[in-house]
């Protein structure tokens, strides 16, 4: 065998799979096609085989037999060696040469004489068994049982191969399709779109800060998130011909046939909302998850006919990176500038760092007036950094003047820590002169709030800076 | 499974019907064989092929119906014809064996 089927090859190498192949009898007896030019022989064999529970079809010559096999397949063919026109040997060869049958054809060649020459010629032409016309009823049925056992074995092997093929194309964790499936089926989708006309859209979705989720909830928690993510994506795809594949890690592709960019944008927003709508439950607790999405379509390409799965992936990936660079939790469409930041995630938690306990208390009270905001506080230094690592607040507000580690130093420490580097920071300072504000903003803070502040307006001020970041 | 229990007598009845049908057909086949023999006597060698074809069919069909003595008789006639020289008319002895073979088939059919 020069060309090995990778799946069959693996199958043969894996004995545990071989032992799984039980030739469980196919529940329905297979259809038998009788081919003979003598109607009395046909009638006698049909009586015997029908009585044994098989469905029987008949044909009076070779050409009629081939036509009947095409009309309705029969996995067992009993044929006469001597027929006018196409004889049994020619018919056997014709069946063996046709690769388009839905399964194996078990051929039993029937002759009036038991000459060795005839038997050898029949087997060489491709027959599986040889019958004398003088065969007794019990022997005929016993040989049919053999045929059925062989066909059952074929059936069981096909099921195993089908299951193997499905597994080779499926992500075992999430049950979504995998990258291999994506590559082969995306090519088919492109061909279909070209043949039928109409658009085809691709979404690339990447779970935001997935590394943090793994760090905080462990890999089991990360797995729970991936499974729940796929569930929510699939719930957002009501049409049964839309599909989702895990491309690796926390990156997923969603394929929307017959869908233009605008329709794909709607689906992408639906997915984004479904993911952020409620915390995902993991064995280690609930976790808020967001997703960044890049969307492209055949119709936005200059030359849709030149599209390949790789090209569409790379365009959707570029859009995904735009989403990531504009604050995550958003959708970017191919050829459309990044969305305004109002679509970003709402501010839910904040850490206020100040060495003055009185001011901490005032800030905490005034921000708590703003419903739905979880306010944490810290008196600064390493304790502040530790609290950030534990709590992962959406936003950190830093007092500038603090003993030990001042605000700018804390900010630099945060930026050099990959886990904290992306948390937006607002400074609070009593020395809010123009040059001081400019210097602080250069440190990558999203805003500066002057002290003394108005406790009743502080929440609004913080939110305005958050939205405008 | 119930069908199978019922089917034994039904199958036997069907087999009897098929044997009657076969006997009627073989009577015509025997007439054709004798007509082939007459053509042979008139110097037409194609009569031999006609007899061979009918003997072969009789052999197969009777075998399928379980009429083994008849099937053997037909097979013997086939072998007689196969022993004839390929391009010449059969000699007197061979012609007599063919005629006897047809008679044996006829005798077997009459026992049915």
Explain how this protein is built.
With 469 residues, chain A is an alpha/beta fold. In chain A, 46% of the residues lie in helices and 18% in strands. Chain A has helices at 6-13, 15-20, 39-51, 62-71, 88-97, 116-125, 137-168, 179-196, 210-235, 261-276, 309-325, 357-368, 381-391, 407-415, 434-442, 458-467; strands at 32-35, 56-59, 76-80, 106-111, 129-132, 200-207, 243-248, 251-257, 280-282, 285-287, 291-297, 331-333, 349-353, 374-378, 395-399, 425-429, 447-450. The longest helix of chain A is centred in the N-terminal third of the chain and has 32 residues, at 137-168. The radius of gyration of chain A is 36 Å and the shape is elongated. Chain B is built from four helices and no strands. In chain B, α1 (2-41) packs antiparallel against α4 and α2 runs antiparallel to α3 (68-82). The A-B interface holds A 38, 40-41, 43-45, 47-48, 51-53, 80, 82, 111-113, 132-137 and B 3-4, 7, 10-11, 14-15, 18, 21-22, 25, 56-57, 59-61, 63-66, 68, 71, 75.
Low-confidence stretches of chain A: 1-24, 339-343
Number of strands of chain A: 17
Biggest protein-protein contact in the assembly: A-B, 22 and 23 residues
Q: What is the molecular shape of chain A?
A: elongated
Q: Average pLDDT value of chain B?
A: 91
Alpha-carbon Rg of chain A, integer: 36 Å
What composes the largest sheet of chain A?
5 strands, parallel
What percent strand of chain A?
15-25%
Radius of gyration of chain B: 17 Å
Termini gap of chain A: 64 Å
């Amino acid at each position: 065998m020069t060309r090995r089927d990778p799946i069959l090859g693996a199958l043969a190498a894996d004995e545990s799979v071989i032992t799984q192949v039980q030739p469980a009898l196919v529940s329905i007896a297979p259809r038998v096609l009788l081919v003979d030019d003598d109607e009395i022989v046909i009638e006698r064999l049909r009586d015997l085989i029908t009585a044994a529970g098989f469905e029987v079809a008949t044909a009076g010559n070779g050409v009629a037999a081939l036509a009947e096999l095409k009309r309705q397949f029969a996995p067992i063919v009993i044929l006469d060696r001597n027929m006018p026109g196409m004889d049994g040997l020619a018919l056997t060869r014709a069946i063996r040469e046709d690769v388009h049958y839905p399964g194996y054809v078990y051929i039993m060649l029937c002759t009036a004489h038991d000459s060795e020459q005839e038997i050898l010629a029949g087997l060489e032409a491709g027959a599986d068994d040889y019958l004398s016309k003088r065969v007794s009823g019990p022997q005929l049925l016993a040989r049919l049982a053999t045929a059925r056992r062989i066909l059952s074995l074929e059936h069981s092997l096909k099921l195993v191969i089908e299951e193997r093929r499905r597994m080779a194309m499926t992500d075992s964790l999430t049950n979504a399709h995998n990258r291999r499936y994506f590559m082969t089926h995306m090519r088919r989708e492109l061909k279909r779109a070209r043949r039928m006309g109409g658009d085809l859209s691709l979404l690339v979705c990447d779970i935001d800060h997935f590394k943090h989720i793994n760090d905080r909830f462990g890999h089991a928690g990360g797995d729970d998130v991936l499974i729940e993510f796929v569930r929510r994506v699939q719930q957002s795809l009501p049409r049964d011909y839309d599909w989702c594949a895990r491309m690796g890690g926390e990156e997923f592709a969603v394929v929307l046939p017959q869908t233009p960019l605008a329709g794909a944008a709607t689906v992408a927003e639906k997915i984004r909302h479904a993911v952020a709508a409620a915390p995902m439950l993991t064995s280690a607790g609930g976790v808020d998850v967001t997703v960044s999405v890049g969307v492209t379509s055949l119709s936005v390409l200059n030359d849709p006919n030149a599209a390949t799965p790789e090209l569409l992936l790379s365009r959707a990936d570029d859009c995904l990176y735009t989403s990531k660079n504009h604050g995550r939790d958003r959708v970017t469409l191919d050829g459309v500038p990044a969305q305004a930041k109002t679509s970003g995630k709402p501010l839910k938690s904040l850490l206020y760092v100040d060495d003055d306990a009185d001011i901490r208390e005032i800030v905490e009270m005034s921000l708590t007036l703003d419903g739905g905001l979880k306010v944490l506080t810290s008196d600064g230094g390493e304790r502040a950094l530790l609290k950030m690592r534990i709590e992962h607040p959406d936003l950190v507000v830093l007092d500038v003047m603090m003993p030990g580690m001042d605000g700018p130093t804390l900010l630099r420490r945060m930026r050099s820590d990959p886990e904290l580097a992306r948390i937006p920071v607002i400074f609070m300072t009593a020395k809010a002169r123009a040059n001081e504000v400019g210097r602080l903003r250069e440190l990558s803070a999203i805003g500066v709030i002057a002290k003394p502040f108005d406790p009743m307006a502080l929440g609004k001020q913080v939110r305005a800076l958050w939205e405008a970041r | 499974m119930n069908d199978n229990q019922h089917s034994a007598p039904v199958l036997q009845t069907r087999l009897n019907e098929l044997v009657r049908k076969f006997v009627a057909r073989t009577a015509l086949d025997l007439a054709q064989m004798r007509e082939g023999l007459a053509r042979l006597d008139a110097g037409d060698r194609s009569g031999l092929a006609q007899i061979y074809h009918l003997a072969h069919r009789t052999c197969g069909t009777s075998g399928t119906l379980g009429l083994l003595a008849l099937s053997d008789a037909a097979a013997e006639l086939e072998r007689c014809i196969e022993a004839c020289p390929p391009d010449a008319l059969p000699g007197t002895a061979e012609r007599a064996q063919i005629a006897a073979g047809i008679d044996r088939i006829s005798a077997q059919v009459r026992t049915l």
